[in-house]
Amino acid sequence: MGCAMWTHKAWPGHALPPGERLRWYASCCNAVEGNTTFYATPARRTVQTWAEQTGPDFRFVVKLPKPITHERRLSGAEEELRVFLDAVEPLGPRNHALWLQLPGSFGPNDVGDLAAFLRRLPGTFRYAVEVRHRAFFEDPREVRQLEQVLAAAGAEWVPFDTVAFFDTPPTSDAERDAWLKKPRMPRRSAALTDQPIVRYLGRDDSARTVAGWAHWVDVVAGWLREGRSPTVFVHTPDNAEAPELARRFHGEVRARVPELATLPDPVEPARDDEPLTLF
């Protein structure tokens, strides 16, 4: 379970020094989306600090940089890819999957480029692909074609479920902003591997977020009973309550699957007049 980030001004961990915020987050959730790598490849030493703040079972789903996926569209980006793979290597077993988020213009005619790119990737990492072209959700032939390409590479298809978000008009500034930026795609619930990944976008109203994820509670519980090991990321437009919501989702799934391990107990950040003790 996790969120789209590990620090937010509304979260208690934001009061900590920047180098300790991930450690606090890892006391609440055991997975995180690595979205910042889309905009810039971090220094290898920076990634090493991420590893040092998390346990070996913590899951990072790290996004490939924009120059590879959006600017070069998976072709001719060998150097950018080499630098990125070297940078994230210190995460070791925490590298749950490297995430290719493709632009909405990347459609069925581009699947050959995706297949060629996946064949060139080293087998030392797992891969997950998010597509945003409607044909991959509405045309059964294109769905099958993409599934075959991903299955051949052992890669997962990452759904970004925005159905509940777009169910009714926005009611806050954050929702209005997301309304213009987030993709409107049909919901996809099929897993291709034993480690599916789900991204779910709710609303800034927590009650509506919880009501909207009922489908995923059922699906994730079913995957667990099948022996799969899913990772779920809970988003809201402002993400102010995302860690608490992620933990609540986990609790609802655990009510269905009691053998699911509990999440850690969140650590309370120390006050300014107290020594910092996180573990």
Describe this structure in words.
- With 279 residues, this protein is of the alpha/beta class.
- It has one domain (2-256): Alpha-Beta Barrel (TIM Barrel).
- It is built from eleven helices and nine strands.
- The strands form two sheets. It has a six-stranded parallel beta sheet with strand order 1-2-3-4-5-6.
- Helix 10 (214-225) packs across helix 11.
- It is globular.
- It holds the Pfam family DUF72.
- This is DUF72 domain-containing protein.
Q: Based on the coordinates given, report the CATH architecture.
A: Alpha-Beta Barrel
Reported for the largest beta sheet, the result is: 6 strands, parallel
Described by the principal axes of the CA atoms, the overall outline is globular
Number of spatially distinct domains: 1
> Strands across the major sheet, in which order?
1-2-3-4-5-6
- Strand pairing plus helix content: what structural class? alpha/beta
Strand percentage lies at 5-15%
β-strand number: 9
- Average pLDDT: 95
Helix content: 25-40%
Could you tell me how far the N terminus lies from the C terminus, measured between alpha carbons in angstroms?
20 Å
